UniProtKB/TrEMBL annotation:
This is Triosephosphate isomerase. Involved in the gluconeogenesis. Catalyzes stereospecifically the conversion of dihydroxyacetone phosphate (DHAP) to D-glyceraldehyde-3-phosphate (G3P). Its main location: cytoplasm. It catalyses: D-glyceraldehyde 3-phosphate = dihydroxyacetone phosphate. It comes from Flaviramulus basaltis. GO terms for biological process: gluconeogenesis; glyceraldehyde-3-phosphate biosynthetic process; glycerol catabolic process; glycolytic process.
Length: 249
């Protein structure tokens, strides 16, 4: 059966001292669910976070990585570098990477391949913009993002892939997709996977929702049958709020 997962994406927030403070608060929280819990601090703090949390139930994951193993890519970090600091899961394809760093489906396919070749787990993000939703084109956009970046993978590869549907219009805006909108899209995503790989694979893949998930709305969103957890931005920066979301299952 697929896993429930709540991952906190800290984005470009928290220096070293702030990271330690937030981790201390996270360690004081009580988890009352079976959901897997992850946090993605900024790259400079991964090693410290990994060491602070290695005996806990919280996995430390990365926000991004390069597709190459090493070389002349100034400012970039490879999969093996992440693994050398204890990180074995990486977020790829976040809409902020797509928008501000011009990450295309083609580039993301290479990153996914590099992560899987390094035996890492991928949380692959995608989602439509507001104009796509308004024009009724949201399913086509999501389908093409998945097909272009993931359909070259084998069924076996999906053991290491988690999907994260994040409608761009709901990220950091306070505007959440309704639980019904989330369920409708998650069911569509699962069917898209099933059409290519069959339902055995599609039903085994966790599909997270991201976009203004808060303690007040998490339970209703997570109650939907095809929503297997959340990728949390703003609310992940507060330990009580984050664990209220984790415990919403
Ligand atoms: O990666 C997380 C998403 O971008 C959601 O962010 P948010 O919860 O602040 O809307």
């Amino acid at each position: 059966m697929r896993k429930n997962i709540v991952a906190g994406n800290w984005k470009m927030n928290n220096d070293l001292a702030q990271t330690e403070t937030l981790i201390t608060s996270l360690k004081s929280q009580t988890k009352t669910t079976e959901a897997e819990v992850m946090i993605a601090p900024t790259a400079t703090n991964l090693w410290q976070a990994y060491n602070s949390l290695k005996d806990s139930e919280i996995e430390v994951i990365a926000q991004n990585m390069h597709f190459a193993e090493s070389g002349a890519y100034t400012g970039e970090i490879s999969a093996s570098m992440l693994k050398s600091v204890g990180v074995t899961t990486v977020i790829l394809g976040h809409s902020e990477r797509r928008e501000y760093f011009n990450e295309t489906d083609e580039l993301l396919a290479k990153k996914v391949d590099a992560a899987l070749a390094n035996k890492m787990r991928v949380i692959f993000c995608f989602g439509e913009e507001l104009a796509d939703r308004k024009s009724g084109n949201h399913e086509n956009i999501v389908e093409s993002q998945i097909k272009n970046a993931l359909f070259h993978l084998s069924a076996w590869d999906y053991k290491s892939v988690v999907l994260a549907y994040e409608p761009v219009w709901a990220i950091g805006t306070g505007e959440t997709a309704s639980p019904e909108q989330a369920q409708e899209m998650h069911a569509f995503i699962r069917k898209t996977l099933a059409d290519q790989y069959g339902y055995e694979v599609a039903n085994s893949v966790s599909i997270l929702y991201g976009g203004s998930v808060k303690p007040a709305n998490a339970q209703e969103i997570f109650s939907k049958p095809d929503v297997d957890g959340g990728l949390i931005g703003g609310a992940a920066l507060n330990a009580e709020d984050f664990f209220a979301i984790v415990n919403a299952f």
